[in-house]
Design a protein that fits this description.
Jelly Rolls; protease; single chain; carboxypeptidase; seven-stranded antiparallel beta sheet; Immunoglobulin-like; 1% helix; mainly beta; 1 helix; 24 strands; 2 domains
């Protein structure tokens, strides 16, 4: 596969319009790391640091912030009330787990694309989902063993979060299938990352599955570059967050994206209004199934 890095969108930070706070567990009072935080219905988001602290690019006290983390109930609060946010642990019944004698001799890689060129996008806080439909041929290799993602990182040890979702009644990403946050460490440069999922005993859902990688907008992933405008003799700081996920152009009519605290169905025309191409860009991700 030929890899091409193209930076289409820079994530900029308006330092003057910031709201700061901390996210904690409502029972223990302990900080919660890597909470996804969004300005409701806007493509403005961030991630809480390991100490639970966060800052987000708005100071409009009438707007809402949406906080979500695996294992906690989603919460919406006013910006004016977001200095200390307490999330309540989710209560749920665990499904009965059947331990199968998986031989893992057969492997099948699914999700490959015809396009051999992968391009790197910085889509800011937005999360894009890749859908894997179920086919009868998967019956003999129905266990999800690995996820493979292509990334491009300017720094060592950048981190990114993996999500797996089932399909809801409307065809959108539904329930999380992982039982805990899965944080992946990415090496510097263009890399092929193989993520072992065998410990989760996940069977390929017959309704299909969505694979999503979430950019963690935290200090350790921040990449800053000073840009000078020679016409005005001024400089500004350009901020991006590592790693970049690589994308493939595929023939498809729409893509599911998470922005503003909700999933959106983005059509090809919305994403590329001036393009005559029948393609959209989706994350360069494949799955390895085994028996």
């Amino acid at each position: 596969m030929r890899l091409t890095t193209i930076l289409f969108l820079f994530f900029t930070v308006n330092v003057a319009a910031q709201t700061k706070g901390v996210v904690k567990d409502s029972l223990t009072g302990n900080p919660i790391a890597y909470v996804s935080i969004w300005v409701e219905n806007e493509n403005i988001g961030t991630t809480s640091e390991e100490n639970g602290e966060y800052q987000i690019g708005t100071n409009d006290k009438n707007k809402n912030l949406i906080f979500s983390a695996l294992g906690y109930q989603k919460k919406t609060v006013k910006v004016s009330e977001s200095q200390i946010v307490l999330l309540s642990p989710s209560t749920f019944e665990l499904d009965e787990v059947t331990i199968n004698n998986k031989k893992e001799k057969k492997q099948l890689e699914i999700g490959k694309t015809k396009n051999t060129i992968a391009e790197a996008f910085d889509n800011g806080p937005r999360m894009d989902a890749k859908f894997f439909p179920y086919y009868q041929e998967y019956k003999k290799t129905r266990w999800i063993q690995k996820a493979i993602i292509l990334t491009d990182s300017r720094i060592d040890d950048a981190t990114i979060k993996l999500h797996l979702y089932d399909v809801d009644e409307n065809g959108f990403p539904g329930n999380e299938l992982l039982s805990k946050d899965y944080i992946i460490t990415i090496k510097k440069g263009v890399t092929k990352n193989e993520i072992d999922l065998s410990d989760f005993n996940l069977e390929m859902p017959k309704t299909g599955i969505f694979v999503v990688f979430e950019k963690l907008l935290i200090k350790k992933n921040r990449v800053e570059k000073t840009i000078k405008n020679f016409n005005t003799n001024t400089t500004k700081i350009q901020t991006t967050y590592a790693p970049l996920v690589l994308y493939n152009a595929v023939e498809r009519d729409f893509l599911y994206s998470f922005s503003g605290g909700r999933w959106l169905k983005r059509t090809r025309e919305e994403m590329n209004p001036f393009s005559v191409s029948k393609t959209i860009y989706e994350p360069s991700v494949t799955l390895i199934l085994t028996n």
